[in-house]
What does this fold into?
Amino acid sequence: MENTKKNTDRPVIHMIDKESDEIEALAMTMEARNPKVAELLYEELDRAVLHPADDMPPHTVTMNCKVEFVDERSGATRVLELVYPKNADIEKDRISIFTPMGAGLIGMVAGETITWPDRSGAERLLRIVNVTPPEE
It folds into this structure.
């Protein structure tokens, strides 16, 4: 029952069906190394509404898109590209889906906010400002 409460406290998210399958497989392979983030991803997958890629709501955070967001606590604005772990490179502003922030951003829509734990476990309120789809 605890997971149900957590899920209802967060906004509905939207995910591309094929990306959902890839993220779930990734979470399973990384569960032993990073169980906390794997659990966060499983929770996100459980509450996601799945869509074919062509039917995604506009301005939704998907894999390989660029996300501009504001940390409401610090006021800092960042633009990051959400990527799979093998493509992560913080110096190029590419953040892995397998980080607490990456797991929190997937499926969000521009204008929404979410409270999410950072690497230290502190809660952060993130507001999505803009989403740029992946370059084809």
Observations:
- The chain has a mean pLDDT of 86.
- The chain is about 30% helix and 30% strand.
- The longest helix spans residues 17-30.
